[in-house]
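pasting KTSC domain-containing protein for the record, 82 residues
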Amino acid sequence: MKKTSFDQDLWGLTQFNEIGYDKCQGKLFIFYFSGTILEFQEVTEEDVFKIITSPNKEDLVENAFKKCFPFVHHQSQAALSG
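structre below
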């Protein structure tokens, strides 16, 4: 999985500043400050670039990704490896 971190202050982020993408499995991971991880499935590279280039990353996830892609919640990084 490849991870990307965003400058929290530059982008005005309050919920997350890191995402991960597994191209082979089409899974996008959003790593929230709270420790929660959202795992989105069936995500293309183009969709990932939408988050990377969006000036409103958190709004895009809440208002588009959560409505368009199946996803599951994980409580921590350890849940992904288990």
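Residues 2-81 form one domain.
The chain has four helices and five strands.
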